[in-house]
Each structure stands twice: as C-alpha cells, then as structure tokens.
Amino acid sequence: MKNFALIGAAGYIAPRHMKAIKDTGNDLCAAYDVFDSVGVIDSFFPKCSFFTQYELFERHVTKMGNNAIKGDGGICSGKVDYVSISTPNYLHDAHIRFGLRAGADVICEKPLVLNPWNIDAIKSIEQETGKRVYNILQLRLHDAIIALKKRVEDGPLDKVYDVDLTYITSRGNWYYTSWKGDVHKSGGVATNIGVHFYDMLSWVFGSVKKNIVHISAHDRVAGYLEFDRARVRYFLSINYDTLPVQAKEEGKRTYRSLLMEGTEVEFSEGFTELHTSSYKNILDGCGFGLEEARNSIEIVHDIRRASPVGLKGDYHPFAILPQSSHPFGW
Predict the structure, then answer these.
(1) Is the separation of the CB atoms in 175 and 328 below 8 Å?
(2) Considering the entire predicted model, what is its pTM?
(3) pLDDT in tens, 161-170
(4) Which of 136, 164, 192 is the last residue of a domain?
(5) Are 221 and 206 found together in one domain?
(6) d(Cα 135, Cα 240) in Å, to the nearest integer?
(7) In the chain, which end has fewer C-beta atoms inside a 10 angstrom radius, N or C?
(8) Nearest 10 degrees: CA dihedral of 209, 297, 122, 69?
(9) Could you read off the pLDDT of 104-117 as tens digits, one per residue?
(10) In sequence order, what DSSP letters do the residues of 246-257 get, joined into one string?
(11) How many domains is the chain partitioned into structurally?
C-alpha cells in the first residue's frame, strides 16, 4: 500500500483522484485546499488529515517520514510516496516542485504546466531528486482512441487524414469570476478544456507542422492544426449558444465530436474509470511523464500566443457562429 497526499481536495476533479487512490488499494493520508468544502473525503478516506493552511500541510507531509500518522484504516507509516495535484493550472508548477522535493513521485492533472520551459525546469528537479512526475492523459487510455491510433498506424503510411474536432462544454457566468476565466491562471479556453484533446491528436497523428488560430475569444477558440498524418480543424467552446440544435433539444449541455474522413469516431462514453486506469498505469511503472506531456503544452502555448487570422483558409464550420460579448463587459 502506498501513501498519498492530495493538493486541491475541494476541486471538481479531486473526487476522481480520491476514487483512483482507493480503487488501486492505496491510502490518502493528507489533503490540502484553501476551501473547506471537502466532505466528499468521507466517502473515500474519512481518517485523512485535512489542512486549509499550506504551511501546516507541508509540515505534516515532511514529518511523515519520521512519524506514524493516523490515516484511513489505521496508520500511515513512513513517508508520502505520491503527491497528487488537482489545483488551478497556474499552481501546478509550484506544487509539482513541492512534491518532488518532499521525496515523492507526483501525479498531476492536465495541463501539467502552462509553458514548455516549465517542463525543462521540472526535469532538472526530477534528476536532482530521483523522483518522477506523471501527467493524467486519460484519452490515451480510452478504447476508442487506442483503436483509432491502431487504425492510423495500420493504414497507408502516406495517408494524411482530414479531421474535425468539436468540443462544447457549457459553462455559466461563474466561470468568468473563477480562476478559470483568467487566462493568466487557466491558460484560456484552449488550455483549460482542450489540452487533453491536443494531446490525443498528437499521440495519434504525430508531430505538429502547422498551428493556425482563426478565432480566439473569452468563450471559444477555433483553428487549424496540421500533423504528420492529419489536417485538423477544431472548435472548442464553453458557450451554450454554440451547441447544435439537436443537443439543446435533448437537454444536453455538452457536445463532443471527432470526425475523420467524414465518419464519426465515437468516444463520448467510457470516461468514468479513466483516472483509475491512469493510476494503475503509473503504479505499474507505465505512466505518462514529462516528455509525453510536452507536445500538448507546446500546442496550447502557441495557440495562446498566436494572433488570430479570422475566417481565412480552412476553418471549422462552427467558427462562423456569432460571437457573444463577455457577460461582465470586460
């Protein structure tokens, strides 16, 4: 049994990490968040030590190597083996550094970091500490995406596929008030809701050759990516108004579509257990490390810095949808 600590216990995605820790037969000994709405811990590790002050959490984790500290099911003996991170994107880099220097391996939510050079700095700390950093890149474990990758690999070597990626996940006005609405903290729409899709595309279709942004706004981003084996038009949005009519009529607030050569690649189901699968892979020594995360971080970094060209060239059909004003007039 491995000892885990969790940073970001009150976040939306934190329960998936708690479940993955429990499902893999391990123990969550310590958790931290500035917010104390963390009653969900009781469903998984009711004896977990919880902190709202970072200094006390840090001291607790540091002392665990020298003391037996009570955790779920009895005693967490010895040090923390893994630090899991599900904090706001801009804090990932600092929390990864803490985990490594605390003598633990690190499991971090996507995006691993906001900038490519952060990866290089963390790599140096990996070498210094002898510990590893793993990123949750769950689409690589999705059966439909694995099958897609095999289909491309088994196809003609000179074939370049035409792909349309559409992902709309509606968010209310709270989004813009939270850290997610601050591009300096979240990285913007492409980073916050799209980084795992860009990782999937580069994993399946190879290296990026072109990265053109057509539209970039507070609620959407649309562009064109050319990979070794694919020409991809993409549209990502958090605006309910951009949903297809059928999705709205069915009462849905999320729409996910991947068209390859005009044929739908169905991958809307099967997400429930992917965090647990990711943890199993990591614990088996097969997790996705720093270099596996690099392509997607470079893609979203370049999108963030790009000057949108407007509706020119080969753009996604949804890119023509009317843009809305910021709900708070910013």
Answers:
(1) no
(2) 0.93
(3) 999 999 999 9
(4) 136
(5) yes
(6) 29
(7) C
(8) -150
(9) 999 999 999 999 99
(10) HHHHTT-SEEEE
(11) 2
